[in-house]
Amino acid sequence: MKFLDNYFKDLGNLLALNDKLMDQLIQCNHLFKKTDSKNGKVIIMGNGGSAAMSSHVTVDLTKNSKIRAINFNEADLITCFSNDYGYENWMKEALRFYSDRNDLVVLVSSSGSSANVVKAAKWSLENKLPVITFTGMDKNNPLKSINKAGLNFWVDSKAYNHIEMVHHIWLLAVVDMIIGNSIYKA
Fold this sequence. Notes:
The chain is of the alpha/beta class. The protein is built from 8 helices and 5 strands. The protein has helices spanning about 1-15, 20-35, 50-65, 75-85, 90-100, 115-125, 140-145, 160-180; strands at about 40-45, 70, 105-110, 130-135, 150-155. The chain has a 5-stranded parallel sheet, with helices on both faces. Helix 4 packs across helix 5 and helix 5 (about 90-100) runs parallel beside helix 6.
């Protein structure tokens, strides 16, 4: 079917490894390890599918890579902080309460323009926490634009599922790179 041929061709093109992407994945690997060596933790946050991905990656980082990682996907935390601080501020407030000075913040947003994610990035940078972003859609999206000195992964697509799948594969590739193998006993 033509739809599926085009769908997987487009996805394959987005996943093609080039020198810039390889360097970024290696740099992400080093930042995760550096955070761990300073007794910090990796905090991964996103909305919707990006939140689900954040949960998966934090579990694999912690269990399989032995790097402490957390996310904030508890319904009670999200609804409490959204109610008390506003939905656009709940991530920033979660970071304010739970982050420590040696932590690394990873923010995943397909559009890079979700207000709560952008505010979390601003707060992190103001508080000298390094930030890694994973975005798509517009190359000059707000999240990527404010993380000038940080590491920014960008998917050149406007298709949400393609962007999310590529982000997930990139993050899990870093997990496997830390482990040193793609086949291991889980």
